[in-house]
Amino acid sequence: MRTRRRRDAGVTAGRRLRGTLGGVSSFPGSPRTLRGAIIAVDPLGPLSRVVVFQYNPDQVQRTIAPRSGGESGQRAADAHRAWGAPTETITMTVDVDAADQLETGDPVAATVGVLPQLSVLEMLLHPGSVRVIANSVLLAAGTIEILPVELPMAVLVWGPARVVPVRITQLGVTEQAFNPALSPIRATVDVSAQVLTYDDLSLTDVGYGLYLAHLVAKEVLAMVGAVTGAVDAVTDLAGA
Q1: Triad 112, 34, 155: Cα angle to 5°
Q2: What is the distance between the alpha carbons of residues 12 and 130, in angstroms, rounded to a whole number?
Q3: pTM greater than 0.85 (yes/no)
Q4: Is 228 helix (H, G, I), strand (E, B) or coil?
């Protein structure tokens, strides 16, 4: 999807900096801005579905909390023990707009607006119809135990240093404008996700390795931050 053309200077000034994956940003001479994405990895599907953010969110809210043993009367010796990876939830608002496609006469956008983009996100929460039908057939045939349908694993890509497996916990869709067929041509999606850790995934799961790589990258960044802080402190003392 291309960067939306500026229709109003005042509105554009208040909007986010819009960049393309591997492309230049909206302002000449400014750094290249990558676009975030959510990738749906389906082990049984031929292709992974990729949701590249048309416009990067203005902000990303992360809530991180330590896991506890859940025991109200836990021993004092356990106060500093880690009961696993901390839980982390991520929320962001993603904008979807068919303005560019409508300006170029795209027949898909003219007919169904942004429904395809919304559907890709929504299918992260829906089991596929083929699997639903297959389970219904097994149930009708008298199969005693039917495992719940496995959803594709979602991977949030937010820059090279943050590629993490997530579970989409909620999508809040606000459709804001419609074409004559009542298909939305502009919408915002409030995305809530939980980061999946090594405590949530099996050793053979692709997400297990992704989370460990993310953890190692975070450790490296923490060391860089510690060294930088120490250098700044020494510099301040030397200049005092």
Answers
A1: 70
A2: 44
A3: no
A4: helix
